[in-house]
Design a protein that fits this description.
This protein is of the alpha/beta class and about 210 residues long. The chain has a single domain (about 1-50, about 80-205), classed as Rossmann fold. Helices cover about 25% and strands about 20% of the residues. The protein contains five helices and eight strands, in the order βαββββαβαβαβα. It has helices spanning about 30-35, 130-135, 150-160, 180-195, 200-210, and strands at about 1-5, 40-45, 65-70, 75, 100-105, 140-145, 165-175, 195-200. The strands form two sheets. The chain has a six-stranded parallel beta sheet with strand order 5-2-1-6-7-8, with helices on both faces. A two-stranded antiparallel ribbon has the order 3-4. Helix 3 packs parallel to helix 4 (about 180-195). The radius of gyration is 16 Å and the shape is globular. The structure holds pyrazine-2-carboxylic acid and zinc ion. Zinc ion (ZN) binds near residues 55, 81, 82 and 107.
């Protein structure tokens, strides 16, 4: 079984959002084509934070981009974003979110961030995603979405760690690039870890040509 996982394609990560990913809206046509491919499961994730979330700079009287230590782990501080039940946390219009079978929420605990859609950043709590994929005997996970070097990368690394063959559809992703080459580093790290980097065209050819 093959699962498509579309990561955090929410208003706040798009132009006009509070944590806008440059050119994030350019993934819409790619994402809409992916949703037409023959995946057995189509899943989307939502970054879904309470107002008092630990990752918000404003909750530490600091500026976005500064860091704090949380349980000895460095936490990057972000603008307030994806506050649950607000406009910023809704799926952006412009992609066909009505075609997804299941939505996974993450980052819901105020005391810890969760870039990965599987586990929080300390790998203590998990979302229902792993159980859901196992229930459907998924073997292959295909990821696209925002942002390449945060939620897509950490989700892909956890997917590999859980034993799923893991593909990142790279033209369906965009990065924040706080540093100019962060996305390039993320792709390198993903390849090292065993992820396979594909384009939409590769996915279309692969799924239309069953072995
Ligand atoms: C993300 C930063 C903070 C993401 C979420 O979806 O990549 N990045 N929260
Ligand atoms: Zn977040």
């Amino acid at each position: 079984m093959k699962a498509l996982i579309l990561v955090d394609i929410q208003n706040d990560f798009l132009p006009n959002g509070s944590l806008a990913v440059p050119q994030g809206d350019q993934i819409f046509p790619v994402v809409n084509q992916l949703l037409k491919c023959a995946f057995d499961l189509k899943i989307a994730t939502k970054d879904w934070h309470p107002k008092n979330h630990i990752s918000f700079a404003a909750n530490h009287s600091k500026q976005p981009g500064e860091t704090v230590l949380v349980d000895g782990f460095e936490q990057i501080l972000w603008p307030v974003h994806c506050v649950k039940e607000t406009w910023g946390a809704e799926f952006a219009t412009g992609w066909d979110s009505h075609l997804v079978d299941k939505v996974i929420y993450k980052g819901t605990d105020p005391s810890i961030d969760s870039y990965s859609t599987f586990f929080d950043n300390e790998h203590v709590q998990e979302t229902p995603l792993k159980a859901y994929l196992r229930e459907y005997q998924v073997e292959e996970v295909y990821l696209a979405g925002l942002a390449t070097e945060y939620c897509v990368k950490y989700s892909a690394l956890d997917s590999l760690g859980l034993g799923f063959r893991t593909f990142v559809v790279i033209d369906g992703c965009r990065g924040v690039n706080l540093n100019a080459d962060d996305t390039d580093h993320a792709i390198h790290e993903l390849l090292q870890a065993g992820a396979e980097i594909l384009s939409l065209a590769d996915v279309q050819a692969k799924l239309n040509r069953p072995l």
